[in-house]
UniProtKB/TrEMBL annotation:
Native organism: Thermosulfuriphilus ammonigenes
Database matches in PANTHER family: FOLDASE PROTEIN PRSA, PEPTIDYLPROLYL ISOMERASE
A molecular-function term among this protein's GO annotations: peptidyl-prolyl cis-trans isomerase activity
Protein name: peptidylprolyl isomerase
Keywords: Isomerase, Rotamase, Signal
Domain of life: Bacteria
Class of the enzyme per the UniProt entry, highest EC level: isomerase
EC number: 5.2.1.8
Amino acid sequence: MWWKRLLALGVAVFLSLPVIGLATEKDKILARVGPYQLTEAQLNAQVAEMPAQIQVLLAHQPELKKELVNRWVEISLLSLEAEKEGLNEDPLIKARIQQARSAILAQELIRRQIIDKTEINDAEARKYYQENKAQFSQPERIKARHILIAVEDPASADSKKAAREKAEKILARVRAGEDFAELAKKYSDDPGSREKGGDLGFFSRGQMIEPFEKAAFSLKVGEISGLVESPFGYHIIKVEERQPAQTTPYEKVKEQVREKALEAKRESVLEAYLQQLRKKYPVSTYLK
């Protein structure tokens, strides 16, 4: 469907009314539909407002601009016919057009008064980093393998006993020196890790169920747990690596910090600006 292509290309700008006006001598006219016309300058201005990935796509595939012009023509045709049908006089549509107009004006005001005028310096970025180090920190993590002997749900006493006995035999083989990964491949009931020899990769606290997490984080590197019971069954856990909690140095995340600090500053400036406007214009709300 063409409107899906429209969305895929990020051309929400074309949802605005077609352009009426005269081109200057320097403006190259790309299309005309009745009283509407689209110039190259207008198209380029709209493309400049699109997401960066769309701009890159258009730069590498300039033929897509023809697709944009075709979409503009289609919308212009539909708009003309809608006006002929009198839809522009429908009260509900008038209200929607007013809402769209208000949203466009508000967005442009924010861009000019807040986004374009708000900057961040290194001192402000460093201050943000110091006050929000948790955002740039990595919690303690461990890398572990496990062997799961699953228990039926709901589990009968007999099925739990059988699963536990099987897990105990495997645990004995692990402690006798057999290869943990090979035993996991052969016996583990965890489909997500079995083919990887029970490898769970790195994980931090809060990512695993409580009994498993408590047991895993209590182990030293190379240590093997006893049987750990969880709602899934019986686990045998081996910790292979441990990474302590650490904060990434400022220099390594400087650009990320600046972006976050700038976003926070813009939000603060916008809130202050809105407070000024509330004093400038009368505001009443009636919802309780």
